[in-house]
Amino acid sequence: MPVLVETDASLVPQLLGAMPTGSQAVGSVDRAVAWVDQHGDEYVVVLGSSVPLEVALGTAEELRIQRPTVSVVLLREHFDTDVLTRAMHAGVRDVVVAGDDEKSLTRAVERAHQLYQALRGPTGARQLGRIVTVFSPKGGVGKTTSSVNLALALADGGARKVCLVDLDLAFGDVAITMQLFPTHSIEQAVGAEESVDLAMLETLLTPHETAALTVLAAPAHPDVRERISPLLISRILRALREGFDFVVVDTSPSFDDATLTALDETDECVIIATLDVPTLKNVKVALETMDMLSIARGHRHLLLNRADEEVGISVEKVESILSMPVSAQVASAMEIAAATNAGTPIVTHKPQHPASLAYGRLAAAVAGDPVAAPGASAGDTSGEPQRSRSFFRRGRSS
Predict the structure, then answer these.
(1) Contacts of 50 (CB under 8 A, 6+ apart)
(2) In contact, 269 and 296? CB cutoff 8 Å
(3) How much is the pTM?
(4) CB-based contact 40:79 (threshold 8 Å)
(5) Model confidence over 99-117: pLDDT tens digits?
(6) Which of 1, 115, 154, 285 is the most buried (most CB within 10 A)?
(7) How far is CA 203 from CA 165, 183, 216, 244, in A?
(8) Of 298, 291, 231, which Cα lies nearest the Cα of 258?
(9) Mean per-residue pLDDT for 179-204?
């Protein structure tokens, strides 16, 4: 999908409205380059009028050499012959007057797609995203908080497109944790097993303010879960693969039908544990069950939440008990609870907090590629952000 670079948030809705459904908005050129690096099927980058001309031309020059199938469309408040000539030499495909007829931008993006098809062909391998299931056999271990922060860390400030699915169908808390008020949920997909596709699901998603993250909320009432079949869940997850780099699934604390279906579809599984004997016993049994069912063998990641060794159980002891290494550990902190209660998860509220860095390390382990350490958000233009060069190598093809 096309990517738009615009630091003026007030302009983003109007510009995205002139671009294809699913287009992505980021707040810096570096994020756009990271996006292109990770999306082999990208065909156009739209550089908004807030992007300085020299930066825009440098980006166009770089993409012209490294990714010649990606067109650059430049938006300017006004331009003269000199700007047009320099843009042409840099490899800009189209220059559009900002604030002019929106159809001008629409047509420029359409021309970019036509050129992409001519250069690459209309068919070819599609890169499918990966499903990351977050699970714990015991409630109250911070699973939903971890799911939300992991999803935000994977989104990498806009370099990746992530969907967070709440499959705790009776008591899902993802929406309220993120201070979202969905008008639709997975309930509206009931009965659509034979017609589920990405376009239909996009009408049920609730966007988070980061723009890189959207949520498929759980039903508002627990009784609805009886009408959500495993087949529907499977087809929803498979359809979401087509539009997102990662689909993070928050589950209920039991091996119910919804959780088992998600685990059957999963590529990576994050298991949450805390440093108490009952939880570790339950996690041990859950891991043995997953072994019997051949779920996510070799693709499991252990997150220790509230990992305070003062309770008398060390990380080494946990690894010995569970026979698997700890991928990341998050210590107890009042800031985490305060951020969650305020609807601003710690990864976005305090990017340099130890917990945020831990979620970043977990995201890197899950992705199998470098993920930028939590830092400035996609819209943060203070300072010069580090350019992310992590290539998305492990996606599936179809």
Answers:
(1) 6, 7, 8, 11
(2) yes
(3) 0.70
(4) no
(5) 766 788 999 999 998 888 8
(6) 154
(7) 14, 10, 10, 15
(8) 231
(9) 91
C-alpha 11/C-alpha 116 separation (Å) is 27
In the numeric block, which tokens belong to residue 195? 């017609």
Asked if residues 108 and 116 have their Cβ atoms less than 8 Å apart, the reply is no
Percent of the chain with pLDDT over 70: 89
Start-to-end CA span in the chain (Å): 17
Assign 122 a pLDDT band (cuts: 50, 70, 90).
low
Q: 260-288 in b/e burial notation, b at 16+ Cβ within 10 A?
A: bbbbbbbbbbbbbbbbeeebbebbeebbe
Which tokens in the block code for residue 372?
A: 């930028």
Measure the CA–CA gap between 11 and 9, rounded to whole angstroms: 5
Tell me the C-alpha distance between 8 and 350, whole Å: 22
Angle at 248 between CA 244 and CA 249, to 5 degrees: 130
**Three-class HEC string of the chain:** CCEEECCCCCCHHHHHHCCCCCCEEECCHHHHHHHHHHCCCCCEEEECCCCCHHHHHHHHHHHHHHCCCCEEEEEECCCCHHHHHHHHHHCCCEEEECCCCHHHHHHHHHHHHHHHHHHHCCCCCCEECEEEEEECCCCCCCHHHHHHHHHHHHHHHHCCCEEEEECCCCCCCHHHHCCCCCCCCHHHHCCCCCCCCHHHHHCCCEECCCCCEEEECCCCCHHHHHHCCHHHHHHHHHHHHCCCCEEEEECCCCCCHHHHHHHHHCCEEEEEEECCHHHHHHHHHHHHHHHHCCCCCCCEEEEEECCCHHHCCCHHHHHHHHCCCEEEEECCCHHHHHHHHCCCCHHHHCCCCHHHHHHHHHHHHHHCCCCCCCCCCCCCCCCCCCCCCCCCCCCEEC
Structure tokens at 323: 């026979």
b/e burial code for range 321-355 (CB count within 10 A of at least 16 → b): ebeeebbbbbebbeebeebbeeeebbbbbbbebeb
Query: Considering all CA atoms of the chain, what is the largest pairwise distance in Å, rounded to the nearest integer?
Result: 72
Computed over its alpha carbons, how large is the radius of gyration of the chain?
Answer: 22
φ, ψ dihedrals at 261, nearest 5°? -65, -45
Residue that is written with structure tokens 């998860």 in the block = 345
> Look-up: residue for tokens 């031309």?
57
CB neighbour list of residue 121: distance below 8 Å, 6 or more residues apart: none
pLDDT tens-digit profile of 37-77? 878 788 999 999 999 999 999 999 888 888 888 999 999 98
